[in-house]
Amino acid sequence: MDDLQKRRAEEFRQHQIRSGKENDFLLLVPANTPLQYPMRGFRVTPMNKTLIPGLALQTQKRAVYKVSLRVHKGVLSVMNVQEGEQVEGQNEQHLSISSSSLQQLNDLLSRLTYTSTIYHIKTEDLAYFSFENHEVIFPIEIRRLSVPVLFDMGKDVNSQVTVLVKAFLRYKELNVLINSIRVNYPKIKIIVADDSLNPEKVVGDNIEHYIMPPAQGWFAGRNLAVSQVTTKYFLWVDDDFVFLNETRIESFVNIMEAVPELDVVGGQVGRNQFAFRLKYEEGNSEEGGCITRVTRTHAPLPGFNGCFFADGVVNYFLGRTEAVRRVGFDPFLKRVAHTEFFIDGLGDLLVATCKGLSIGHQKHSSTNKYVSYRHPPRSDSRAKMTHHFFKNHLKCIKY
């Protein structure tokens, strides 16, 4: 039980990092103006009364001190107002506080609360805080608390990673791949999503073979495979890859565990690393934007020689199950698709590529039937561009 609690504590620590909670601190603005207020970090849950932290007035002596606040998506109130304390606008969008004592006014400000009056799980309000000719604005984050989704990592790679394969027609190559996996990973789970025209049995220990309707496509198979994963990570491999003596899944896991913000870490297939950046220009609201794929990385991943941040990687990568599921794979893309997943995940998935995390590529001669599916007609390309025109609001894609 103690070991389980330690693993859970570590998973929750990483969850806090991934969700940005380690940056979730209150930042107060000092009284460069007479007004002190929270510049960032004030977060409330929808329709729940919450004290506004850090409000204060710092100024020279006056006969009367008066401050006012106004909001748009909620109401303001001061708790426990006593007789003689001057508060106007209780439980309204605009509230003012007056006092002949600066100490009393600041005491009232310390009891000021905000309650959102609309229900929304992720929105923001702005509070306008004023004194005489001075006015400041600070944000109020309105967020519904989310429940952590944690995976019990267990103690070895078998409880940490599931190997995923999309299969189509190439059973000879698939069996070579499975046998090569079993050399160093005899117990790791393998999930095969198979949309072959005439499915054959795939036998072996700890293999889940899912038969799909024929020719449903590349991304539909990926979605099916990822949907069945119960481990924190999955390793994506093609059905014609082969594990080498130096292929080590643990190397991927070590990087992901050390950098909890990472969602995808790519390796290399033979000498092919195929890491790329996506240059995205939003364009205007009528025409849409443009995406250009460039064979280049962003910056080194600190602490890991040979690893670099990128926007996309080769078809051999370790994925964080929960993060990849959120992006998903567009089942419209049946035959030629890979970059499109990273386009959909741009800005949501943190991706890196690492040299030395290698896997082999089998030498084989594809059948005519496989080639006919692998290389679609031009009509497919036109339909694909039309799809991206609408779905991703793009007028051009340049690979």
From TrEMBL:
Record's protein name: Beta-1,4 N-acetylgalactosaminyltransferase 2-like
PANTHER family recorded: BETA-1,4 N-ACETYLGALACTOSAMINYLTRANSFERASE 2 (PTHR15046:SF2), GLYCO_TRANS_2-LIKE DOMAIN-CONTAINING PROTEIN (PTHR15046)
GO BP annotations listed: UDP-N-acetylgalactosamine metabolic process; UDP-N-acetylglucosamine metabolic process
Record organism: Carassius auratus
GO MF annotation list: acetylgalactosaminyltransferase activity
Ranges of residues in domain Glycosyltransferase 2-like: 162-281
Pfam families: Glycos_transf_2
